[in-house]
Design a protein that fits this description.
Number of domains: 1
Bound molecules: S-adenosylmethionine
Structural class: alpha/beta
Helix content: 25-40%
Length: 275
């Protein structure tokens, strides 16, 4: 596949998913239903006593929403968030400062394929990042090196799903000059505004078997997983109007248990280093 890594990094630097991630409520939770569902399901995979001094590394943390929400839930947790986007890390640091969490939540610019902090972590999180890497195996090998036998790795990737045109390919993105929200996100170059800067990115969707094999090939065993359904996006508006998002989210979690990968839009996998 013909793509220059520099194009991808430039797309990341502009702030991935800025349009959705900017929108946080006063408690720093995403207002986007799907993102919130995915965040809560990811955080739910951290199964520790609420007062435990759990240490967590979030790789590809974007503007730091997951680390900040983890630190809010686990009052003694220490969290490090790393992202390749300097701009996203600046925003993450600002949010941490405003939320008075800077003492327990640190953010730094870094590449998941390069040197990572050498301290020991109870959990390493890497959600919705591997699908943007041309060589996700290099990142997983790197992550494996910093994981001990007791470290949990939580990974998520988008499911091979009909909502995107292709399983794997280059996408083009044009963003607003004002707030980096996405104006066009397409594989079709004809839909692009020729006068606007275009960012390229790589995106790959995974079947459950494929992501499990990738993890196995790079040193991890999948211990459990959960599927997050994309269809729920369509009931979001109705839920907002009726004010019933909480019970529907609960119902969705129960349904997820039984529908598994068949209907999932995203898989969240909880792994351990293979023995
Ligand atoms: C789709 S966002 C996911 C953000 C967040 N983890 C989540 O689950 O919502 C992908 C993030 O990965 C970051 N990223 C992409 N390549 C990276 C790399 N090689 N090293 C570190 N971060 C990377 C991007 O800048 C972006 O913030």
């Amino acid at each position: 596949m013909e793509i220059d890594e520099r194009d991808i990094d430039e797309c990341n630097a502009v702030g991935w998913g800025g349009d959705r991630t900017w929108q946080l409520d006063r408690r720093l939770r995403p207002t986007d239903y799907l993102l919130r569902l995915r965040m809560e399901a990811t955080i739910d995979m951290i199964s520790e006593p609420i007062d435990s001094p759990v240490s967590i590394l979030d790789l590809g943390c974007g503007i730091g929403i997951f680390p900040l929400n983890i630190a809010k839930k686990y009052g003694n947790a220490s969290v490090i968030g790393i992202d390749i986007s300097k701009r996203s890390i600046e925003i993450a640091n600002e949010l941490a400062r405003k939320a008075k969490l800077s003492d327990r939540v640190k953010f730094m610019v870094g590449d998941v394929r390069a040197a990572l902090p050498r301290e020991s972590f109870d959990y390493v999180i890497c959600t919705e990042v591997l699908e943007h890497l041309l060589d996700p195996g290099t990142a997983l090998d790197n992550i494996c090196q910093i994981c001990g036998p007791a470290t949990w790795l939580i990974v998520s990737v988008p499911h091979l799903y009909k909502s995107r045109k292709g399983q794997e390919g280059i996408f083009y993105r044009q963003v607003s000059d004002v707030d980096f929200s996405t104006i066009v996100d397409t594989q079709d170059r004809q839909l692009l505004d020729p006068n606007r800067k275009t960012y390229k990115y790589y995106h790959k969707q995974y079947s459950f078997e494929e992501i499990s094999k990738l993890l196995n090939d790079h040193g991890f065993s999948v211990i459990s997983y959960q599927g997050i359904k994309v269809q729920m996006r369509y009931v979001k508006t109705a839920m907002g109007i009726l004010g019933i998002s909480k019970p529907v989210r609960r119902l969705d979690r129960v349904l997820n248990k039984y529908t598994h990968n068949q209907y999932a839009g995203t898989f969240i996998l909880k792994c351990k280093k293979a023995e």
